[in-house]
Amino acid sequence: INDLSVSQVGQNFTFVLTDIESKQRFGFCRLSSGAHSCYCILSYLPWFEVFYKLLNILADYTIKGQESQWRELLESLHTLPIPDPGVPVHLSVHSYFTVPDTRELPSIPENRNLTEYFVAVDVNNMLHLYASMLYERRILICCSKLSTLTACVHGSAAMMYPMYWQHVYIPVLPQHLIDYCCAPMPYLIGVHSSLMEKVRGMALDDVVVLNVDTNTLETPFDDLQSLPNDVVSSLKNRLKKVSTTTGDGVARAFLKTQAALFGCYRNALQIQPGEPITFSEEVFVTHRSSAMRQFLQNAIQLQLFKQFIDGRLDLLNAGEGFSDVFEDEINMGEYAGSDKNYHQWLFTVKKGGGAIFNTVRTKANPAMKTVYKFPEFFGACILQGDGNVRCSIGIKGPNVCQENIPHTGTPPPPACTIDTRQEASMASCCLCQILTLTSA
């Protein structure tokens, strides 16, 4: 790092690298005010608050010229195995964190993404965006502040739980990838406001645009009106009730809506002795009200729903149950209906008759599956935006490799491309992966 005279005021944001198997790696960044470089930690772990905190500590060490503490912190991360959720971790005298439990609902103000999203976007626009995501539209979110931009992208996507966005996902779009905005498939893309003039000049058809700065949403669709009225009214009322409170109320309001829309999937489970458990789309749709049937008829074609059903069938056919908050919500009885087939499965498993099957009987494309991979390594980077980016990859042991990575465009937003084909060899020879990116 050549310039130590940067401001302590900075903003945190995140980019995402997606490999050919649709596995996401997060790039957690800190950009100081007036700086020409930014710190970045690469990890498959979605620990936003943890890595943002560590980035701020690293920036503080750099400003104060405390290189020994800087290296001590990185070396501690380098050798750290992944602890269990809730375990306190002390990396140095001033550096500690508690391992987050990603199975819990995000809460305000602890979860930065949801907090910034809920503060920046009003309830009506959140509802419209939620509906657009349920219909898997092409969605652009624009903002002039990188931290708020990526927080809104991640925050809105998190409200789809227990489902996950299955298509193009770019929390902050690099300038040289601006043509992605013309992609014919569904996408969720964050665009810095400095690029929006160019984006507006492109051939954008049927695109939903949320401007966070002005808190306005443009959509050519009636997606919100297409959702069942009672479900939308309940969600709107819940969000208004929790608008001035802290905790997981916002996330739970969306969870209840997801349960109201999709919780009856258990009734469509088909169980035959000696056969893999399957899912009947016909049963799923026909056993609901007319308003709900119209929505569900479209929902069964969505990749996010097909992926959800795939995951549930995998667990059921492996003889495993469910213990996540979505199933807990369904178990409260408001959405479950009879759940006869699911409880039949539970009874069978308890008696020891749960056979293990590998067959999955849905139409979802395996290539569309989004999987969060949690290997025990991460990366730390320094990214400078004045030309090429030099990447030094330090590996546990004597091996060190370096490569030059082309970096086009000027901030905002800083971005880089990393060849993920190296991951397999790195993971096999080391516990942690440390990267340092500097300009050539």
TrEMBL record:
Keywords: Cytoplasmic vesicle, Guanine-nucleotide releasing factor
Name of the protein described by the UniProt record: UDENN domain-containing protein
Domain spans labelled UDENN: 1-319
UniProt lineage: Eukaryota, Metazoa, Chordata, Craniata, Vertebrata
Subcellular localization: Cytoplasmic vesicle, Clathrin-coated vesicle
A biological-process GO annotation: endocytosis
SMART domains: dDENN, DENN
GO-annotated molecular function: guanyl-nucleotide exchange factor activity; phosphatidylinositol phosphate binding
Leader peptide range in chain numbering: none
